[in-house]
Structures are given as structure tokens and as C-alpha cells.
Design a protein that fits this description.
By secondary structure, the protein is α/β, with parallel strands linked by helices. It contains nine helices and 15 strands. The strands form three sheets. Strands 3, 4, 5, 6, 7, 14 and 15 form a seven-stranded mixed beta sheet that branches. The chain has a six-stranded parallel beta sheet with strand order 10-9-8-11-12-13, sandwiched between helices. A hairpin with an 8-residue loop joins strand 1 and strand 2. Helix 1 packs across helix 9 and helix 3 crosses helix 8. The structure holds zinc ion (2 copies). The site of one zinc ion has 4 residues, from loops.
């Protein structure tokens, strides 16, 4: 193995990324090194590049927390999440490790909100173990991570997207509970979260799945993945008209279930689209921070559910869903590929909503 590799590094907010040589670390016992097959970008990567949701003094860091990799090295025997042995050459994802000792890990059993949970894509690239982001030729897999093998049927870019967007959607549906066959689900947003949520809601026997999103090419993918009716935000700028559209599709009641897959700013409008007594699931993060939930939620008997990250089984659920729903039109989910040297362009395209999800192939030139 060489002792360093190439990585796209963020050195300043909104600045073009720099491709730098970063050390390949020695492996702690039970740690692994993964050769990055595909790194997809998530909205959170763009928010961090813009300076939102990051710790002060974060620079420099390697972005990317949706990585599908191939095990290159292991320091001692390891098993995957299901207990089967891992070996060099396995194609894998790996979860965010939580501490296993705190109130949330041990008593509440909600490890995704452990205060000490580790994240990828926001760690110093000049401190050991250096390689904790996907936009690099290699990524370090710390010993406490649960490792999930990727089924052969799942292409690496889709598997990578399962490492954040899709597993969070799976966690959200788990928290939402059963969808009855008479229930109409409205999905707010037609980015990666929203599109995957449409596919899962359709799969869970919802009566109808509605989508409000933008721009037009993403809304087209929403239809391809099973949305029964779509509304392009760009065509209907008045929120009151959008609320009326939902009522028109639900006998005047509003949707039984609304799933927010946009940003927090979409919550007030979305809550107004839920029927009395319905459920609201908020998945999308980010936004201006100014969204205020309307007071009338108090008298509407609405269940409000939010979700943060996911637990290791949701990584598994997401890749297994992809592996067993081969008949769905997944090809619209990953819209453009980039080399490591083009990572800045990928960020710009994602920030401008020009694409659904970019994939970076760090070993392609
Ligand atoms: Zn913990
Ligand atoms: Zn993410």
C-alpha cells in the first residue's frame, strides 16, 4: 500500500475543493481500510460546504458520508452486522458508531441520537485517522462501525446513497409505523430522500402517493418511481394553491400521512396538508431555521414524528430494499458522475438542484 492517497478537501466555505495528498493511516486493531468504489453527495455535504451545521474550526475536511467501498485491508478478523466473516475484496457500507454507554444507547435504545455518535465527512483531514470522508481514494473504517455487505444486485452508487439518504428514510418509516391500504401519502420534496420515500410508500401499500417537488426532471423521476400524482413547485408558487391541490386529491380532507423530504422550511406548509388526526413525518434537514409550526397543529390531533440519522439495521434495510426491487426505475436516482478532480463541480451542480444526486468515482481519471 502507498502511504498516502488523493482526496478532495474543503479548505474554506464555498471555495473550490482542493485535491490533496492525505496520509493513509496505520490501522487500529479491528479497523479496516476501504477502497472507495463510489461516493455520492448528500444535501448535508452541500450545507457543510456552505458553512451550516458544522463545528467551528472544522477545516480542512474531506466531505462525503455516503460511501460504498471495497475492503482493502483489515487489522484482525471482523464480521459484518449479521455475524458473517468479512474478507478483503468484500463490497461494503459501514454505519456511524455510537458510544454504547450513554442513556440513549443503553436505556432509550436510540443510538442514532447518542451525543458521541461519530459522523463521516466532517472530520479534520490533517489529524489521525485522516480519511473519514468519501471524496477520497480510500476511507478509514473505525473499529466500532457496523459493516454491511452490499448485495451483488445493487450498483455501487445506489449502495452509497443507502449510507445516508435511504437508510434515514427507512428509519423514518419505522418510526411512522404501519401505512394502511386506504391511506394517501404526500411526499414533500423530489430529491434523493423524497424519491426513495415515494418508492417505499408505494411498496407499503399506500392507497395513493402524491408528490410536490421541483424541478421538472426530478418530478418526472417521482412519477417513474410510483407517484400517482405530482405537482411541480415551480408551476405553483402560492402555498395556498398547493394546499388546495392536496385537498383536491384527498376528498377535501388532506393527506393521511405527509412526509417532509425537503428542508425544515417546508414543515409549516406540510402540516397544513395533513388531514385532521393524520401523521406528519419530518425527514429532510437544513433550511433557514425560521420555520414555525402553526398553532393550529394543537387542535388537529396530528402526530408529529421527526427522525435523525439511523441505526445500523436501517443501512441493511436500505440495501436489501434496493436489491429486491430491481423492477423499479432506479436509474433516475443517480444522475451524473464525476472524477475526484471534478468534485467542486459536483458540489455546484448539487447546490443548484441541477441533478438528483452526483456520484464521485475517485479512482477514475
Ligand atoms: Zn451513546
Ligand atoms: Zn446525508
Amino acid at each position: 500500500m502507498p502511504n498516502e492517497c488523493r482526496a478532495a478537501v474543503i479548505t474554506g466555505f464555498n471555495k473550490p475543493l482542493e485535491v490533496q495528498k492525505v496520509p493513509i493511516p496505520d490501522l487500529e486493531p479491528k479497523a479496516m481500510l476501504a477502497k472507495v468504489e463510489a461516493a455520492t453527495l448528500c444535501g448535508t455535504d452541500v450545507h457543510r460546504w456552505h458553512g451550516a451545521n458544522v463545528q467551528p474550526g472544522i477545516m480542512p475536511f474531506i466531505p462525503g458520508h455516503e460511501t460504498c467501498g471495497i475492503i482493502e485491508e483489515m487489522n484482525g478478523p471482523r464480521t459484518d452486522l449479521l455475524g458473517s466473516p468479512l474478507k478483503k475484496g468484500d463490497r461494503v457500507l459501514w454505519s456511524y458508531p455510537s458510544c454504547g454507554r450513554c442513556y440513549w444507547c443503553t436505556i432509550a435504545r436510540q443510538p442514532s441520537i447518542c451525543p458521541e455518535i461519530m459522523y463521516w465527512g466532517c472530520n479534520h483531514s490533517n489529524e489521525y485517522p485522516y480519511l473519514l470522508g468519501g471524496c477520497a481514494e480510500y476511507q478509514y473504517v473505525p473499529p466500532p462501525s457496523d459493516v454491511i455487505k452490499v448485495p451483488d444486485e445493487v450498483p455501487s452508487p445506489l449502495a452509497a446513497a443507502a449510507a445516508c439518504a435511504y437508510r434515514t428514510v427507512m428509519h423514518g418509516f419505522e418510526r411512522l409505523g404501519v401505512i394502511a391500504p386506504h391511506e394517501t401519502v404526500l411526499v414533500q420534496g423530489s430529491g434523493p430522500l423524497g424519491l426513495f420515500a415515494i418508492a417505499v410508500a408505494r411498496d407499503k401499500s399506500a392507497y395513493r402517493v402524491l408528490n410536490i417537488g421541483a424541478p421538472a426532471d426530478r418530478v418526472k423521476v417521482a412519477s417513474d418511481l410510483g407517484a400517482d400524482a405530482t405537482l411541480n413547485l415551480d408551476d405553483v408558487p402560492d402555498p395556498q394553491h398547493r394546499i388546495q391541490w392536496v385537498k383536491d386529491h384527498t376528498d377535501g380532507r388532506g393527506a393521511d400521512i405527509v412526509i417532509q423530504c425537503a428542508t425544515h422550511d417546508a414543515v409549516p406548509e406540510g402540516v397544513a396538508m395533513v388531514r385532521k388526526g393524520g401523521r406528519y413525518l419530518s425527514i429532510g434537514a437544513g433550511g433557514s431555521g425560521k420555520a414555525a409550526v402553526p398553532v393550529n397543529i394543537m387542535s388537529q390531533h396530528i402526530s408529529f414524528i421527526s427522525v435523525l440519522i439511523a441505526e445500523p439495521r436501517h443501512w441493511l434495510q436500505a440495501v436489501r430494499f434496493l436489491a429486491t426491487r430491481q423492477d423499479l426505475k432506479w436509474e433516475g436516482m443517480i444522475s451524473k458522475s464525476y472524477t475526484l478532480d471534478q468534485t467542486s463541480q459536483a458540489f455546484e451542480d448539487m447546490a443548484a438542484f441541477r441533478i438528483v444526486k452526483p456520484v464521485i468515482y475517485p479512482h477514475q481519471r
